Amino acid sequence: MEPIISTKDLMRTFGGVTALNLVSLDIYDKQLRSIIGPNGAGKTTLINVITGKLGASGGEVFYRGQPITNYSVHKRVRMGICRTFQINSIFMGLTVYENIRIATQLHLGGSGRVFARRTSLKKVNQEAESIVDRLNLNEVAYQSVENLAYGDQRLVEVGIALACDPKVLLLDEPTAGMSPKETRHIARLIQELAKEVAVVLVEHDVELVMTISDRLTVLHQGGIIAEGPPQEISNNCDVKDAYLGSTKWAPLLETD
């Protein structure tokens, strides 16, 4: 099976600092791949280079075997490479539905008018309503995003990414700042999404990644020090030394 996203000897430097050092990895369709590592390991930089937010200093990025290293962010989104950010990137003054509807409208190539009549562009409305329903945001769909709980705000950002019809969904710290209950909710959502598309998860929550991931990639000082399924990674001595230490965790999704 051909990887949906792959990198080969990917490099990114900032002045004299090497943030990514010869990173090569393959990510497959309907796989939940988590990228973990200590602060400064290069996790967000890797996501930024894959999505085109940052250029590569060396190496290549491929989508279904096609080199896309020099493609713009916009072109990658059109191909289905979509992401969320560590910090919310949503319109706080608009409702949940309006945020998702605008993203859907732009993706489908409709009018860019923010306040187009709700009765127009039937397909856009249906797609937006379907995403709101999928994220269990119906009860707050017409509330201003600025009035929502933080966990729901993060879900809105996921909804905006889903509006772009992703083939690869990259989630950067989606549970940061969430309560345990909110974390369990989004963990289940991520698992469901990974049944349909490739999901790349950058996350510090060890319990989360060990519970839901198919495969983990561990970065340290810009390079990959280990890859494998959760149990293999949890027993890897190099990973323990660099990141996990003697951490113990319990299954995340046992209780509500």
What layout of secondary structure does this protein have?
Elements: E1 5-14, E2 17-27, E3 32-36, H1 43-51, E4 58-63, E5 66-67, H2 73-79, E6 81-83, H3 96-108, H4 122-134, H5 150-162, E7 168-172, H6 180-193, E8 198-202, H7 206-212, E9 215-220, E10 223-228, H8 230-234, H9 237-244
Parallel strand pairs: 3-8, 3-9, 6-7, 7-8
Antiparallel strand pairs: 1-2, 1-4, 4-5, 9-10
Percent of residues in beta strands: 15-25%
Describe the strand arrangement of the main beta sheet, using strand numbers.
Answer: 6-7-8-3-9-10
Rg over CA atoms: 18 Å
The gross shape turns out to be globular
Head-to-tail CA distance between termini: 37 Å
- Uncertain parts: none
Q: Biggest sheet, in brief? A: 6 strands, mixed
Description of the structure:
It is built from 9 helices and 10 strands. The chain has a 6-stranded mixed beta sheet with strand order 6-7-8-3-9-10, with helices on both faces. The model has no long low-confidence stretch (mean pLDDT 86). It is α/β, with parallel strands linked by helices. The longest helix is centred in the C-terminal third of the chain and has 14 residues. It is 35% helix and 23% strand. The protein is globular, with a radius of gyration of 18 Å. The termini are far apart.
